[in-house]
Amino acid sequence: MGQLEGKTAVVTGGTSGIGLATAQRFAAEGAHVFVTGRRKETLDAAVAKIGAKATGVQGDVSDLADLDRLYAVVAEQGRGIDVLFANAGGGGFSTLEQVTEQHFDQTFGTNVRGMLFTVQKALPHLNDGASIVLTASNAATLGNEAFGVYAASKAAVRSFARTWANELKGRAIRVNSISPGTVDTPGIDGLAPDQEQADQLKSHMAGTIPLARIARPEEIADAVLFLASDQSTFITGTEMFIDGGRNQI
Q1: Cα–Cα dist 75/59, whole Å
Q2: SS3 state of residue 239
Q3: CA–CA separation, 15 vs 23, rounded Å?
Q4: Is 128 strand, coil or helix?
Q5: Which partner for 132 in 54, 69, 175, 220 could form a disulfide, CB atoms 3.0-4.6 Å apart?
Q6: What SS3 class is residue 112?
Q7: Residue 188's pLDDT is what?
Q8: pTM as predicted
């Protein structure tokens, strides 16, 4: 028996990196996993990797019609949602002087607006006692240069977890956030113009981490599984740092 045997999970942004690793882990633990992604080819590839316990639903969390379509597909299976991993997000570097409306709107549109409506529209489908896990970031408390918009969006996510944990306590729905540090994902590679500079960026970031390396996506998935499972039934409203000690030491 897996830790999520017979349960239904939704993972947004589940086609690569943390989302894909977590969807794979959920499925391995017995859950049927609904996975979202914006591009059909990467979504199909992710579903193939996860296996028979996965259903892919193409869409963008910043598009409310896409969210409605996602939950309509989920509702067809008739069992409700036991785990919601609201993970879709992203960002890029931009100093205060360089920030444009497009950069701000895109970052907050996905990381904040998309997060809010992902959870709001899930509410009628969530089973009492469900677990919601939100992907925040340790960047929210670090003050890294040129990362201000992204960091602010992730600070909002952390705030959401506190408020929603309080608002949903009557249904015994737990809401927690994870704050990963640097993780070896395509999103990190995308912050640099080429692979050589991406490798340099990851090497630099590893040098700031007490464990002297960046995380693997599977290590973040392990923590999400803990918060999603019955092993954490008395944990809600918390922020779990998974950053190799970067924010703690």
Answers
A1: 16
A2: strand
A3: 9
A4: strand
A5: 175
A6: helix
A7: 81
A8: 0.96
Q: Find out whether 166 and 237 touch, Cβ atoms under 8 Å.
A: yes
Burial of 212 by CB count in 10 Å (0-12 exposed, 13-18 middle, 19+ buried)? exposed
Low-confidence ranges of the chain (pLDDT < 70): none
Going from the C-alpha of 163 to that of each of 60, 116, 125, 220, the distances in angstroms are: 24, 12, 20, 23
- Tell me the two tokens of residue 101: 């409306």
pLDDT of residue 155: 98
Alpha-carbon distance 4 to 80, whole Å? 14
Residues involved in catalysis? 150
**Cα gap 114→116, rounded to integer Å:** 6
| Token pair belonging to 171 | 């249904």
Rounded to an integer, what distance in angstroms lies between the CA atom of residue 22 and that of residue 142? 25
Give 3-state DSSP helix, strand, coil % of the chain, rounded to 5: 45, 20, 35
* Burial grade of 175 (CB within 10 A; 0-12, 13-18, 19 or more): buried
The residue to which tokens 């677990």 are assigned: 131
- Phi-psi bin for 183: left (phi > 0), alpha (psi -120 to 50), beta? beta
Sign of CA dihedral 49, 183, 9, 55: negative
